[in-house]
UniProtKB/TrEMBL annotation:
UDP-N-acetyl-alpha-D-muramoyl-L-alanyl-D-glutamate binds at residues 31, 154-155, 181, 187, 189. It comes from Aequorivita aurantiaca. ATP binds at residues 112-118. This is UDP-N-acetylmuramoyl-L-alanyl-D-glutamate--2,6-diaminopimelate ligase. One of its GO terms (molecular function) is UDP-N-acetylmuramoylalanyl-D-glutamate-2,6-diaminopimelate ligase activity. Residues 328-458 form the Mur ligase C-terminal domain. A motif (Meso-diaminopimelate recognition motif) lies at residues 403-406. Keywords: ATP-binding, Cell cycle, Cell division, Cell shape, Cell wall biogenesis/degradation, Cytoplasm, Ligase, Magnesium, Nucleotide-binding, Peptidoglycan synthesis. The modification N6-carboxylysine is found at residue 221. It comes from the Bacteria.
Length: 487
């Protein structure tokens, strides 16, 4: 039996109407999911305000309402708890409800604009290969040991997080690696969790639709490190100028990694090829299968984290050389006619630039680099012309197309991307709204040894148009088309 007052432990309460010594059933933040004796948390969202659904929750049988503003009508028999911040209250209550699972395993949060999925997934793989029980909360999937669940968010809501963490603890998981998105931090989805470490990958342009400006976006990320405990570690990339910003006010043990500057964990890239790269870490040379300078950073972050979590250096390096790239991250195939098709989740300017620079760095001759790219609808519109510019400057041919248009007009999105193309590069770009047709055109254009980059959707297996999701898989489509076209 769980009492309301037990899950309110550590919540900042402003006032209470009714008794908190009542036995509760579930905790919910969506009135539509409330049933008899549940607790409903009213949250001010980005689209609607949960306070408007308090009556609906009561009608559905809620026993207690947690809210920032008490409703005008108080129903007898329901307990109302007024809190300073519903998001925060829900996260703390969720942790209490599931008996604080984050304190029973080693939880590491990975944040930054790019690289979160890569770093957290590789850490999960590394720890499993080292014989540990591991868990993963990522954009691509959720893993509780070997059991896979579908992910809906990069960082799920606090109830979902704590639910999975409890399942992990019960399954004997010792280490959990989770992505911490800026939306997640801002909406306090990770509040009340006990992190034993935080990792910062990098910070560049994204989500300027949600955050007021870059400074706010940076400060939201920083607040994650501000809240780490003195027992935790904060491992940051100091080649990124915002790395030191993340460490400014943290109580955690400060640790750094870098390729270019002085740091606790350093690496050198000795050689780069299409099939991998040769790295030097701690005077040990190792061949890794992941390519690109950005992956050297990701691998160094993994090395540092694993070391800080107590694994032996040599074992870490041995396992690192066996790690495979994550689904939809520089996933490539070479066709019969020696055309290389690469699918990559680059959906930010920095990621697109890195991936194209990596491709250009390993080109051997005069191959064409044909980029197929778009930008998501209902997301940061400011990044569109910037990505258009990068695609045009770093490719020999570009086909602008749709990503997930969501509720927006796909042609308008493409026009905004095209606005960033310098006039002297107009000739090399075309636009084809239908993504499958765009990939087909790229496959038709490609000749022996050419490289096709299909960017933005990576592992996604759908395309969202007008609120509807259709089956769509960049990698499958490209491989089928290259076969059909006898390329
Ligand atoms: C913009 C955003 O982050 N939205 C998230 C937010 O929803 P919201 O604020 O829009 O909620 P709302 O619809 O306004 O509703 C407010 C409240 O009323 C409640 N409600 C609503 C209707 C009703 O009938 N009854 C009711 O009780 C809702 O349950 C909610 O508690 O809170 C919801 C619950 O946690 C999230 O599912 C939802 O994610 C949406 C689906 C989303 O697309 N989020 C993306 C942008 C996101 O979070 N992305 C980041 C990764 C980004 C990255 O790093 O690249 C992520 O971590 O996934
Ligand atoms: N360390 C890095 N620095 C810059 N770019 C990177 C880095 N790691 C990966 N990328 C690029 O960013 C893309 C997305 O990588 P990944 O999925 O690991 O990032 P993410 O932070 O999880 O993204 P999201 O915010 O969508 O969850 C990759 O496909 C690659 O192009
Ligand atoms: N986590 C990111 C993913 C973007 C992926 C891209 N394919 C798009 O749909 O914009 C977001 O939700 O903003
Ligand atoms: Mg991710």
């Amino acid at each position: 039996m769980i009492l309301l007052k037990d899950i309110l432990y550590k919540v900042t309460i402003e006032s209470v109407v009714g008794s908190t010594s009542v036995a509760i059933n579930n905790l919910e933040f969506d009135s539509r999911k409330v049933s008899l004796n549940d607790v409903f948390v009213a949250i001010k969202g980005t689209v609607s305000d949960g306070h408007q659904f308090i009556k609906k929750a009561a009608d559905n049988g809620a026993l207690a309402i947690i809210c920032e503003i008490l409703p005008n009508t108080i129903v007898n028999g329901i307990t109302y708890v007024q809190v300073a911040d519903s998001h925060e209250a829900m996260a703390i209550m969720a942790a209490n409800y599931y008996n604080n699972p984050s304190e029973e395993l080693k939880l590491v949060g990975i944040t930054g604009t790019n690289g979160k999925t890569t770093v957290s997934t590789l850490l999960y793989q590394l720890f499993k290969k080292a014989g540990m029980e591991a868990g993963l909360l990522s954009t691509v999937k959720i893993m509780v040991g070997n059991t896979e669940y579908k992910a809906t968010h990069t960082t799920p809501d606090s109830l979902t997080i704590n639910n999975y963490l409890r399942e992990m603890v019960d399954a004997g998981v010792e280490f959990c690696f989770m992505e911490v998105s800026s939306h997640g931090i801002h909406q306090k989805r990770t509040e009340g969790l006990n992190f034993c470490g935080g990792v910062f990958t990098n910070l560049s342009h994204d989500h300027l639709d949600y955050h007021k400006n870059f400074a706010e976006y940076r400060d939201v990320k920083k607040s994650f490190f501000d809240e780490l405990s003195g027992k935790a570690f904060a491992l940051v990339n100091v080649d990124d100028k915002n790395g030191v910003v993340m460490l400014q006010n943290t109580k955690a043990k400060k640790q750094t990694y870098a390729l270019k500057t002085y740091a606790d964990f350093k690496a050198q890239i000795l050689e780069s090829q299409f099939t991998g790269q040769l790295l030097k870490i701690k005077n040990q040379e190792l061949w890794v299968k992941l390519i690109g300078g950005f992956n050297a950073y990701n691998l160094l972050a993994i090395f540092g984290t694993a070391k800080l979590l107590g694994l032996k250096e040599l074992e870490i390096l041995q396992i690192m050389s066996t790690l495979e790239s994550v689904d939809g991250r520089f996933q490539y195939l070479i066709s019969e006619k020696q055309i290389t098709a690469i699918v990559d989740y680059a959906h930010t300017p920095d990621a697109l630039k890195n991936v194209l620079e990596t491709i250009n760095g390993i080109r051997t001759g005069n191959e064409e680099v044909i980029t197929v790219v778009g930008c998501g609808g209902d997301r940061d519109a400011q990044k569109r012309p910037v990505m258009g510019n990068i695609a045009a400057l770093l490719s020999t041919k570009v086909i602008f197309t749709s990503d997930n248009p969501r509720s927006e007009n796909p042609e308008k999105i493409i026009q905004q991307i095209e606005a960033g193309v310098p006039p002297e590069h107009y000739k090399k770009t075309i636009s084809i709204t239908n993504r499958k047709e765009a990939i087909k055109a790229a496959c038709q254009m490609a000749q022996e040894n050419d490289i096709i980059l299909i960017a933005g959707k990576g592992h996604e297996t759908y395309q969202e148009i007008n609120g509807e999701r259709f089956d769509f898989d960049d990698f499958k489509i490209a491989s089928q088309l290259l076969k059909i076209l006898n390329k």
